[in-house]
Design goal:
Blueprint (H helix, E strand, L loop, with lengths): L6 H4 L3 E6 L3 E6 L7 E4 L2 E3 L18 E3 L1 H4 L6 E3 L2 E2 L2 E2 L2 H15 L8 E6 L5 H14 L4 E6 H6 L6 E6 L4 E7 L2 E2 L5 E3 L3 H15 L8 H12 L8 H9 L7 E6 L6 E6 L2 H4 L18 H10 L6 H5 L2 E4 L8 H24 L10 E2 L7 H10 L9 E2 H7 L10 H4 L4 E4 L5 E4 L30 E7 L4 E4 L4 H21 L9 E6 L2 E8 L2 E7 L6 H19 L2 H8 L6 H4 L3 H11 L3 H4 L3 E2 L5 H13 L5 E7 L4 E6 L7 H13 L7 E6 L10 E8 L4 E7 L4 H20 L2 H10 L14 E8 L3 E3 L11 H22 L5 H4 L1 E3 L4 E6 L2 E7 L5 H17 L12
Parallel strand pairs: 1-9, 9-10, 11-17, 17-18, 27-34
Antiparallel strand pairs: 1-2, 2-3, 4-5, 4-6, 7-8, 10-19, 11-12, 12-13, 12-14, 15-16, 20-21, 22-23, 22-26, 24-25, 25-26, 28-29, 28-32, 30-31, 31-32, 33-34, 33-37, 35-36, 36-37
Helix pairs in contact: 6-7, 10-12, 17-20, 20-23
Protein name: Actin
Keywords: Membrane, Transmembrane, Transmembrane helix
GO biological process, one term: vesicle-mediated transport
Length: about 850
């Protein structure tokens, strides 16, 4: 370990401090190793409860840190300011940082930028405390706080499973495209300190002649010098090798008493492998925790987004001193591979289909112990680093809450990638030599923010935040740069609620207007959705429907438990729970403004003959499987048929979420899938499981929803799906469905010659929409977008009329305007239409009656699924 500071690197003025429960690594950015690696311990002569930081007395300067602290155990008390990776005593931690900066690093804080690390799911208040200490006490030039797992990945890639095991805590953290998947983080209450204690107990029980004051130190050195993992995991075989007296197994430890200076020796036996074996057999140490580390990693990856699991298995990164045991990486790779192979083998036996194999790869780093610190050192060298750290000026202008927001530099650096070669030399790889392919369910990072002109090139911006103003998602740019804007909007909105809206519960969509700009705000429980627009013709109704569906889509990703967490902890960082699923929100926004399905809370059904639909529905109904809640036959755009259990509420928004998920995750159309999905209309409190399989050239899919997540349920769904497809094949259904898809949307024969009708949309009260496209323009044209805005306002007025209690609205509602747009309802059908502006009133009435007659006389089953259950 280096104990001198390289003056050349000192010019970088960036200091990296990785505070761990057991040890702190610190040094100047640009080095391959930290300059100092010392225990995170403070020797202070005061009692723990009375520790205070006062610079006016010499007594308070009489404290020591690191290895030096152990030399003053007689005159001082020993304190550990951190526990399980979290700071417990801020006064002691401030003392530790003070001595580290001025005595060890000899830095000038007002000229230095500091990079500090934190464990995953660190409380946001802790970041505020760190910012307060470094900016107000030390007057630091800049500060950046980064998650340890992300820094560990910095030199290996953007996606991977990080196993970070230090002295006090072990975490399994999946990272996709540089973003931590917060909902899939697993915590293991076993780490290096527990192994040390376990070995210490073994030595005591065996009666080794070790001085009491040295036994902890001896146990730690035995663990670090002689510990290893069994290659094949056969404990009995390893015990037998020691029982036979194999000389290669036993080791001798030579020690010297720290008090009497007498020398002593002890024999090291079972302790060598029983200590590290605790990771794979935790029952040796703690009867309450029985999940081996390979099982925890497997569960963490299995709960991650489906299309990044393979990448996570192929890039398991080891970080921390407790992963340095000989044979640990090989043993972990072997155990995880066995779990995957066993699961795939069971699947093959039950399904008869051999799935593609998955190769597990556990990556070792030459600087594994310092992987986190090294990642911080690499990050500081990037030219983009100055965009993400917080400056002293920003802190005093915006307060400590600004430092709660994190920015992932890995997501910014997509064009440049830094790695370390075997010779430990830093090299910069350009995009020509390193081709980065974005994650399939993640959006690429764009550096667009409210403080640069590019932000204003977009007509609409959509933001999601908590009710405290904490960013969750933004459509353009980063949450970091938008945080000030969101905080301002939140402050204005709260004032509006306080002074202008007495009856808050009846308010749905709030609108703030200034000049040509409008800001729409929709609150749902603890989540606030915002749409800022300068498009004057935007329909408030469609904006409301879009924001409402956006909230529904968010709940489908994180479940409504997020509202419970936000109620208990208003500053809970929900953005981490999105993980790699941000693209689903982006897709919901893209479709939300112009999709009739989202605007009118409907589904678009595939038009077909009555006999064909009846045949499909009867076969779908016959494929009943126990514990299957509903079955759907659909494409990415159309719903072909639905079967559901009686008395089961299955909302159209749930079907839209399923279709959005299929559109956003291309892999769901390849092969069979068994994935968790939250359908808020069914139950917003948790996940159900969906069997998804696309056939007929991956154009038509069958979806089965079940509340049973077992492998047996998957097998039953697979068998039912195979039976259904065989029936379809026997009756030549493939060609019939292809014909329907090619001819959709159709032109009703009775109005082919009605040139006065420009366009119309029909909505059935059961929540199904018919969208004929018999005019030259299509969905993506500006004309159609304009029509959608007009239809939205008409439909809003129609809904208001219904809410006023007009009992005759179903029979008599008929409204139109001077632009030729109108809406009418006849029994169960609502028709929104657009005619030529020069048409006379009698012609409007005549054409509307023509439309009504078509849906009254023709068989409606051609257009709607009237009885989905």
């Amino acid at each position: 370990m280096q104990q001198t500071i390289d003056k050349g690197f000192y010019q970088s003025k960036v200091c990296v401090i990785d505070n761990g429960t057991g040890f702190t690594k610190m040094g100047w950015a640009g080095n391959t190793e930290p300059q100092f690696d010392i225990p995170t311990v403070v020797a202070d002569h005061q009692e723990k409860q009375k520790v205070q930081m006062s610079k006016n007395t010499n007594e308070n300067l009489d404290y020591y840190i690191g290895y030096e602290a152990y030399d003053y155990t007689k005159s001082h008390n020993i304190f550990y300011p951190m526990k399980s990776g979290i700071v417990e005593n801020w006064d002691l931690m401030e003392k530790f940082w003070h001595r580290s900066i001025f005595d060890y690093l000899r830095a000038e804080p007002d000229e230095t930028t500091f990079i500090l690390t934190e464990p995953p799911m660190n409380p946001p208040e802790n970041r505020e405390n760190i910012a307060e200490i470094f900016f107000e006490t030390f007057n630091a030039k800049g500060l950046h706080i980064s998650v340890q797992a992300v820094l560990s990945l910095f030199s290996t890639g953007l996606t991977g499973m990080v196993l970070d095991s230090g002295d006090g805590v072990t975490h399994c953290i999946p990272v996709a495209d540089g973003y931590v998947i917060g909902s899939c983080i697993k915590h293991i209450p076993l780490a290096g300190r527990d192994i040390t204690q376990f070995i210490q107990n073994l030595l005591k029980e065996r009666g080794e002649n070790i001085p009491a004051e040295d036994i902890k130190k001896v146990a730690r050195e035995v663990k670090e010098k002689y510990g290893y993992c069994i290659g094949d995991g056969d404990l009995i075989k390893e015990f037998q090798a020691y029982d036979r007296g194999d000389k290669n197994k036993f080791k001798t430890y030579y020690g010297k008493s720290s008090v009497t200076k007498e020398k002593y020796t002890i024999d090291i036996g079972y302790e060598r492998f029983l200590g590290p074996e605790m990771f794979f057999h935790p029952e040796f140490l703690d009867g309450k925790w029985r999940s081996p580390i390979d099982e925890v990693i497997d569960k963490s990856i299995q709960t991650s987004p489906v299309d990044c699991r393979k990448k996570l298995y192929q890039n398991i990164i080891l970080s921390g001193g407790s992963t340095l045991f000989d044979g640990f990486s090989q043993r972990l790779e072997q155990q995880v591979q066995l779990r995957i192979d066993s699961r795939l083998q069971k699947y093959e036996q039950r399904s008869g289909f051999k799935p593609a194999s998955i190769k597990v790869n556990v990556t070792q780093n030459p600087f594994q112990r310092y992987a986190v610190w090294q990642g911080g050192s690499l990050m500081a060298l990037q030219p983009q680093f100055e965009k993400v750290y917080h400056t002293r000026q920003e802190y005093f202008e915006r307060g400590s809450i600004h430092c709660q927001i994190q920015c992932c530099l890995l997501a910014i650096i997509l064009n440049e990638y830094v790695h370390i070669t075997q010779e430990n030399q830093y090299q910069l790889m350009s995009t020509e030599s390193y081709q980065y392919k974005p994650h399939v369910i993640n959006i690429s990072y764009q550096e667009i923010s409210p403080d640069i002109p590019e932000f204003f090139t977009h007509k609409r911006h959509v933001f999601i935040m908590t009710n405290t103003g904490r960013p969750i998602y933004v459509r353009y740019g980063s949450e970091i740069k938008s945080s000030i804007f969101l905080a301002t909007i939140n402050a204005i909105f709260q004032k509006f609620l306080l002074f202008f809206f007495e009856d808050k519960e009846k308010q749905t969509l709030f609108k703030i207007s200034h000049d040509k700009s409008n800001i729409y705000i929709l609150q749902r429980n603890q989540i606030t959705c915002i749409c800022a627009t300068n498009v004057l013709q935007d329909s408030e109704f469609i904006i409301y429907q879009m924001l409402d569906f956006l909230n529904t889509q968010l709940i489908s990703i994180v479940t409504d438990q997020a509202n419970v967490q936000l109620t208990q902890k208003p500053n809970y960082d929900l953005a981490y729970s999105l993980g790699g699923s941000r693209n689903l929100l982006t897709l919901a926004l893209k479709n939300g403004l112009y999709s009739p399905c989202i605007a009118f809370n409907s589904i678009c059904t595939l038009t077909m003959t009555a006999s064909l639909r009846s045949f499909i529905h009867n076969n779908l109904k016959e494929t009943k499987v126990a514990n299957v809640i509903a079955s759907l036959l659909l494409t990415e755009t159309y719903v072909i048929d639905i079967w559901r259990q009686k008395n089961m509420e299955f909302k159209t928004s749930d079907i839209t979420i399923i279709q959005s998920m299929i559109q956003g995750q291309g892999q769901l159309k390849k092969g069979e899938n068994w994935i968790p999905v939250c359908l808020p209309g069914l139950s917003a409190m948790g996940f159900v499981y969906a069997y998804i399989y696309f056939f007929y050239q991956n154009t038509i899919g069958i979806v089965m929803i079940s509340d049973d997540n077992s492998l047996d349920m998957f097998t039953k769904c697979k068998e039912a799906s195979s039976t259904l497809i065989k029936k379809f094949d026997q009756n030549g259904l493939e060609q019939s469905l292809f014909t329907c898809l090619q001819n959709n949307p159709i032109t009703p024969k009775c109005i082919e010659n009605q040139t006065q009708i420009k366009h119309f949309i029909v909505r059935h009260i059961s929540g199904q929409v018919f969208l004929p496209m018999f005019q030259p323009f299509g969905k993506n044209s500006k004309t159609f977008k304009f029509y959608m805005q007009q239809y939205g306002e008409l439909y809003k007025d129609f809904m208001i009329s219904q809410s006023l209690g007009n009992s005759d609205v179903k029979q008599n509602y008929f409204v139109w305007d001077s632009k030729g747009f109108g809406i009418t309802q006849y029994h169960d059908v609502i028709i929104m239409f657009c005619f030529n502006e020069l048409i006379e009133f009698q012609q409007i009435v005549q054409n509307v009656h023509t439309l009504q007659k078509m849906f009254r006389t023709e068989d409606l089953i051609n257009f709607f699924i009237l009885k989905p259950s």
